[in-house]
Structure formats: structure tokens, C-alpha cells
Amino acid sequence: MLVEGPVEIEDHEGEVVRSDRFVVAICGCGRSKTYPLCDTSHRRKRRHTRKQ
Q: Does residue 16 sit within a domain?
């Protein structure tokens, strides 16, 4: 999700994350190492191989 900045986001533990950028990407998948901010981790896909 893209949000116009600057923003302050409070995470589920009560920690406040601040960003002064003009547009901020918020993580929706939970894979981001910079959660609650998006680091594009959702773009990396694991390929599953089927055993026959």
C-alpha cells in the first residue's frame, strides 16, 4: 500500500516508525525485514518442485 508522507506508523508492539519520504510503501504481506515498511520482499518467489 502506498501512503503520502511524511508518516508515523505505530506497529503492533507500540513502536513508532517514522518516514520523511513523499510516498511511503506499507508492507501488507508481512515478509519485509523493515516491517511495517515495505522492502519489496513480496517480489521474491520460491519455486516449488513436485516430486513424481
A: yes
Residue 19 domain flag: yes
**How would you classify residue 12: left for phi > 0, otherwise alpha for psi between -120 and 50, otherwise beta?**
alpha
Q: How many domains does the chain have?
A: 1
User: Quick one: which of 35, 45, 4, 46 has its CA closest to 21?
Assistant: 4
Angstrom distance (rounded) from CA 31 to CA 36 = 10
- pLDDT tens for 1-52 read 899 989 999 988 899 999 999 999 998 888 889 888 899 888 876 655 666 5
Instruction: Tell me what pLDDT residue 52 has.
Output: 56
Sign of the torsion angle spanned by Cα atoms 17, 7, 40, 11: positive
